[in-house]
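Reopening: Methyltransferase domain-containing protein still failing for me.
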Amino acid sequence: MTAPAPSSGEHLPVQTAAVWAALDALAGGGTPLRVLDVGGGSGVFAVPLARLGHQVTVVDPSADALATLERRAKTAGVGDRVRGLQGDGDLLHELPLAEHGSEGGYDLALCHAVLEVVDDPATTLGEITRALRPGGQVSVATANRAGAVLARALSGHPKEALALLEDRDPAPGRTRPARRRFAPDDLLALLRNAGLEPAEWRGVAVVSDLLDATSDADPEAVRRLELALAGTSPYRDVATGLHVLATRP
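Support: Ran it again with your exact input. Result attached.
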């Protein structure tokens, strides 16, 4: 079964257009890759990648998410190319990652919406770096502090926006830890300290998250606009998320 090119946006959220466009150069070339998806949950990225012919290992702490992943992969006809492992990104060394032909390291790792919630982003990135082969790449997508500030301000919560600007918890006293947000320079420094060589960062969901849910905007037009703005300042600076491809030397 052949998947559409990820950047075509078919069946894929327009918010992730910039991420898929960056992955196209790696995953769309027709060469099967060994992919590690850390925190990949129910397979939003894993299943489309498997449909392109890649072998994907998903690591996630949620048994429910991995059960959904298994069902989704079987329904898509790629159950033999997707495997799920229950575990945490900061303990990859405890998991049997070397099985299923991944000896020598993975060609590509995904770390999407993970650094915001892990105990220590540096530890998690270090584990991912060691799981890559030399020359392998990691795709990191995470929340952008500037975008979070703008979103809170536009939704009528200036005090929360100011707290985020100052890197404080916008809702102190909550029972769950606050999600981290990253400035681009902070994320790039984190990647370099993990032994990775980051490429230029891009904005994710520059405008799509600002559209009203009832908007009748043409999704294809929004996708094209997202791709045009993803690498362009000042627009990318206030995107909802940040995306970087980084290479293990």
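The longest strand covers residues 132-143. If you still see a failure, please send the error message rather than a screenshot.
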